[in-house]
């Protein structure tokens, strides 16, 4: 009887193993089938999800267009700034040249020559230096 029980337990154990393997194989087949059936193109999206994606795309395109417009505007302003900078540099150069010309025209030697030609003379005893004193 113990031998008979042992054989019976062995058969039950074998049947359980076979059932378990069959069940696992069936589960694996369903899992693999579900993986292959689910793809991005076959999924159904709700109207809300479609609307969110469409609005997001429109916003992104709007931002890209706005960025290009801002870059174009910045480049234009940089060109204006460069032209004004060049103009300021030219005016400073012109002012420097005019200051040098003024200094040359105010040269005391030149003024004495012009006065001598006009019949004028400089007498140092007739010249007075006046200093303005400021009280604190």
Give a verbal description of the structure.
The model has no long low-confidence stretch (mean pLDDT 81). Helices cover 77% and strands 0% of the residues. It has helices at residues 2-37, 47-105, 108-117. The longest helix is centred in the middle third of the chain and has 59 residues, at 47-105. The chain is mainly alpha-helical. It folds into two domains: 1-35; 52-117. The chain contains three helices and no strands. It is found in: Cell membrane. Belongs to the FtsL family. Residues 21-30 have a biased composition (Basic and acidic residues).
Topology:
Layout: H1 2-37, H2 47-105, H3 108-117
What tags apply to this protein structure?
3 helices, 136 residues, rod-shaped, mainly alpha, single chain
Total domain modules? 2
Cα end-to-end separation: 135 Å
Q: Determine the mean pLDDT.
A: 81
The helix/strand order is HHH
Helix count, per DSSP? 3
What is the radius of gyration?
51 Å
Largest sheet: none
Task: Please estimate the helix content.
Answer: over 70%
Shape: rod-shaped
Derived from helix and strand composition plus strand pairing, the structural class reads mainly alpha
Low-confidence stretches: none
Report the β-strand fraction as a percent range. under 5%
Report a brief summary of the structure.
With 136 residues, this protein is an all-alpha fold. The protein is built from 3 helices and no strands. The chain has helices at 2-37, 47-105, 108-117.
